[in-house]
Amino acid sequence: MRKPRRKVWIDFAFSIAIITLTIAAIFIVSSPGHKKEQKNNSTNATASVSIESIESTYPGIKIVTEMSNDKKAPYAIQYPQSTHNQFNEEVLSYINNERSHFLKRMDQLSKVKKDPTGELNISFKTMQHKSGHYSFVVVSGTNFSDGKTDMTIHSFHLHPSTGAMHTIADVLNRNPEHLAILSSHVKDALMADPSLQTKLANGYDKWVGPLWSNFREYALTDDAIIFYLNSQIVTDPTIGQPTVSVPLSSINSILMKAYQSEDAPPVKSEEQILKKPEKSSDQEENSEDNQKPEEQKTSNAEKTTSKRIALTFDDGPEPKVTPQILEILKRHNAKATFFMLGSRVEYYPDVAASVQQAGHELGNHTWNHPNLVKLQSARVMIEIQKTSNIIEQVTGQKATAFRPPYGAVNQRIRGLSDMPIVLWDVDTLDWQHHDPQKILEKVKQQAKDGSIILMHDIHQSTADGLDDVLTYLENEGYSFVTVSELHQ
Ligand code: NI
Fold first, then answer.
1. Partner of 461 for a Cys bridge, out of 102, 157, 160, 434, CB 3.0 to 4.6 A?
2. Which regions of 276-427 does DSSP assign to beta strands (E)?
3. For this structure, is 314 an active site residue?
4. pLDDT (0 to 100) of residue 238
5. Range of the domain at 367
């Protein structure tokens, strides 16, 4: 009985083995060809290119990020994408041009030098005019390993609902007289800028003369039109493309109707301008009253308190500590600013929403708390943008201030944030000592009128010490404002 059974088992095992071997053989035979194909498809086997697309906080605009980790010619490229094909094509053709120019250059360099490395970074900043007009200021920079950098600024324009892409000529109604007026305003602004006036190159005025091409790179905001001028205007190459800003109110009448402001003040006569400084000092009190009509009925004692302080809470929201802090602030009728991490807002949306409901200012503190100075611009943009998106999505309110983690910031990072960057002058070190009493000590030592106090709403000890801090500051005559109110 045993023998036949055993034979059947062996037969079965045999057939399984044959099938397995056949499959393996097919696999082995086919795979070399497959591998070859992969190699042929990419010029550099070590490089990988990733493409990522996220929503921006500007309706109808996505941010596309393309990154290559190629050892000799890495790049991180970021550009806006809209729902309008013509705009998208124009942007892409510029991007592709910059990229192929860079790759070609690196290729040529590799023939001359042993180990040339350079990195291309393209990022952009979005500005919006109240008419809906978007200006995208795209900065394309190549950093070479020998420390040299090349940088160019190029602007794109889009009206998101019509798809119109207004050039500077459109903005000025294609009128040469308007161009001449603009040219003289830009020249004035250039000469009035103390950081530029001493560095103007000989013959600089050629670059601000009445030619449309001199003013091609521009951005429109609610208050001003910003021009990115030719870098040859200045003698100092580290300045790059000098920027001047012309107030819209000063050129209202030469603008296309869509960009005109109906309530723009009439052009001031010289007499009025001369009187202005004298007037402003005694008008200050009045204007403050006008801004805060609800405070007019308060007692005299309160009315004379002019000392202001901005409390800021970083790294939250945190489900246990943040609600306690909100409660203490409410008891003291104090408004504060919360610099939130996007990843935590996503995790604790209800806590983030309760901060907004309590009437506090919402700040952006990046998604994951990296040191931005060490990140590529494209990564920085994603950290900021994703966080602004989740804050608005969860709370229905926009983040209105930005605080880089560790306060680590430079010109490049400043150029990437469309929110004001807010640091601090009083560091309570609450994250370090975890001692409620020490928070008060630090505040007593350092707080003054106009101070911004740094605390964190993720430590129980901070919540424990906050009531004493608020009581102390109240007794010292301070009122509590948000960071944006402080800077008004
Ligand atoms: Ni932080």
1. 434
2. 307-314, 337-340, 361-364, 401-402, 426-427
3. yes
4. 78
5. 305-486
pLDDT in tens, 409-462: 998 888 888 899 999 999 999 999 999 999 999 999 999 999 999 999 999 999
Measured in angstroms, how far is the CA atom of residue 368 from the centroid of ligand 1? 9
**358 lies in the same domain as 424:** yes
Ligand 1 centroid to Cα of residue 264, in Å, is 41
Chain segment 311-353, per-residue pLDDT in tens: 999 999 999 999 999 999 999 999 999 999 999 999 999 999 9
Q: How far apart are CA 294 and CA 53, in angstroms?
A: 45
The Cα 453–Cα 337 span in angstroms is 10
Residue 463 CA to residue 190 CA, distance in Å, equals 50
- For residues 140 and 178, state if they share a domain: no
How far is 68 from 119, CA to CA, in rounded Å?
Answer: 10
CATH of the domain at 108: 3.30.565.40
Q: Are both 74 and 144 inside the same structural domain?
A: yes
Of 133, 154, 456, 459, which one is the catalytic site residue? Answer: 456
Statement to judge: residues 45 and 141 lie in one domain: yes
Q: Which of 70, 314, 315, 430 is catalytic?
A: 314
Residues 234 and 311 in one domain: no
314 Cα: distance to centroid of ligand 1 (angstroms): 5
449 is catalytic: no
